[in-house]
Amino acid sequence: MATLPNPLPSLATSGLELPPGSLVDVTTDGPWHEPLLWYADGLAAPGSWAALRDAGRSLGLLPVLIDGGSRDQWPEAWDLDPALMSYPGDHDAEDVLSEIWDAYAQDELDTDNAWPGLAPTPLADGPDSPETLAAEMADMLTDDGMALENARLALVPARRSADIPAAIGWCGPLNHENDVARLCAVLRSWEDRFGIRVVALGFDTLTVSVARPPTTEEEALALAAEHFAFCPDNIHQSAQNSLEKYASDALLGRETWSFWWD
Hints:
This protein has helices spanning 48-57, 93-108, 130-141, 164-167, 180-194, 217-230, 233-236, 243-251; strands spanning 21-24, 26-27, 30-31, 37-40, 61-66, 152-157, 196-201, 205-210, 256-260. It is an alpha+beta fold. The chain has a 7-stranded mixed β-sheet with strand order 1-4-6-5-7-8-9. Strands 2-3 form a two-stranded antiparallel ribbon. Strand 7 and strand 8 (205-210) form a beta hairpin. The radius of gyration is 18 Å and the shape is globular.
């Protein structure tokens, strides 16, 4: 795959009007040869996601919220490691998920069931386009009193939203999967089937918007198996500790999905 030029080194002369912010090239092995992302010094404001998305699109830059979390931990302290990453397009989503299912499901779900296959695309479309919903979710999640009220906006050089974690060398799921590009292949599949967009990243957390969520119990249960393989901690370290409960509580009709890796 040919690598697209990274516009971040010339961001200051790009004509893009940005608030004060920082370019990040810090990795676990020292400075990377080019910036991995830009992120703002101040908090995200209502409407800023959509404005930044529209402004950055022509340069090949995509928006994402950056969450410092309770430890006030920003990307310079995230142990970014782009050298670990392959390319998402080199992986098949079902191969990735089935491999992880076979490795974990029997012990952590106490089931001998074989990998059930990918969930079907929901029959019903949501009311909003993926881009519109992502902007709406970004505004909602950064409102006062919401989970990401202290998040900041970032721009990442990426071909598509699903590739953002690998593009910055994010290692949030390191104890689960070292090459995050494999999980980005799953995110690409979810983009195609469920209209997801990567909305926010923290040190070990990921939030996506979902423009086409499952609307039936059958659709949600089929998807729950994928979520388990993608992030087992979402199920076996939560009150939603069965596929059935997770499907009904966390997936059915839900327009955001959140993931956390221990």
